[in-house]
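re the bet — no i am not wrong, look at it urself. input seq straight from the record:
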Amino acid sequence: MKIGLAQINPTVGDLKGNLEKIVEAYRQLVAQGAELVLSPELAITGYPPQDLVFKSRFVPLNLEALKLLRAEVGDVPLITGCVDYNPGSGRPFRNAAVILQRGQPLRSVFKSLLPTYDVFDEDRYFQPAESVAPVEINGRRIGITICEDIWTEKYLPRRLYDFDPLAALVQAGAELIVNISASPFCVGKPLRRCEMLSALAARHRVPIFYCNATGGNDQLVFDGNSLAIGANGGLLAQLPAFEEALQIVDTDAPSLPGCQPMCEAQELFEALSLGLRDYLRKCGFKSVVLGLSGGIDSAVTAAIAVHALGAENVHGVAMPTQFSSQGSIDDALALARNLCIRCPVISIQSPFETFRALLAPEFAGLPEDTTEENMQPRLRCMVLMALSNKHGHLLLSTGNKSELAVGYCTLYGDMAGGLAILSDVPKTQVYALARYINRERELIPRSSIEKPPSAELKPDQTDQDTLPPYDLLDRIFSLYVEENLTARDIIAQGFDEKTVRWVARKVDLNEYKREQAAPGIKVTSRAFGMGRRMPIAQRFVD
């Protein structure tokens, strides 16, 4: 059977635009000989629609779009995703896979396993299927699953479900499994997903065709990487990562070499680029502005932005004070030349002196401290927001996950912005990204990578004046934040007790800052933001 995989990029809530994407992909695949076409989970609404489903006209309009789609489908069946009503008790809606075919009644299959962890909250909206059964399509008994329905292996963080929809479908006679999906990206997930599907296909001796969404929706990036796996577990096809793609794959196709994942730095770079590009496109922005300090974080952010948006849509600004070294200013300007972007130099020294003088009577007799340091990023924010307002740019904040974890960032200063590209990228991975960006030629000045990182808010300042070395900091906060280990557990692994307790306490105390941070792009197993919900006013200390 020739199955067409429509790996498309839906936009949440764009019912008309998503419908047009599905129709165009369907027509192209049918013209190329597809006998069945798959599109992603909730392709009509975009994923995740979140509380849009509670708006009085949203679900009815999504079903109206389904009717229009049905009129466009011919003899070749299409399986697509939409939100349907639950007429019984429980949650008001269902996450549905709908089978459309001319001359056939509309048939629906509902999602069985509703993820409610990390960034997922499907139990808030959807009622799970009560049972599963294969559907006969053109004489083939096909088991239809939706995203999480197939994630019942060791690849989940823990055993979450007692029911295995895939095993039940095979036991009921399914000879082919299809999965329509909207599976968000994190580093390493494409390869893990491929290994899981290969193991499942070989165990149950059925082909598995997996159609994933691609694109960015708010903090989530969907990587595509749709797959066709033979009954022996061999790879039949792998669609490209981080882009829309259409491909027909025959269930009898010969096996290919195994999945070909990108290296980690390339995965990160492409995911962040796609997340930024789609955030702007889907929110109606065309250009960005950011501060260029001469440091590695702003340099990596600018390079990603140029790759995603084109140099003409990226605007840098250098904003030195008396504490900014000439080397840092030179590095910022060299980066701008290498990336072919504008970078005017707007000194904030004069307003900084004005503010210090303005507050001098109130600060009389008190030593200068972080108060004066924090004035500088807040003044820079004034400059950047003025340019954003005047020219319609989206302001990018440039802080990384390590800084955000321990609060080494200024609220209403460098934390301000419309999107934080690196907020889920630890500092050590920022360096890996810089090396990847410079893989062919030097775009980021070598000195930006090699010099000790510094906020340059006071004389001779470096990050390590107050922070542990970044490689140590990243390992500790990763265990604390991403693996949920307590300080005691981490110390038991051999880490220095004083350092661990300092990091853990800083993470806890700075929750209030992260609650006010710009949205970021999720690329690790657990990002700050929608997938991590911690109270601000709390007193639990291990």
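see?? Residues 370-391 form the longest helix (22 residues). told u. also Residues 268-467 form a domain with the Rossmann fold fold (CATH 3.40.50.620). so pay up
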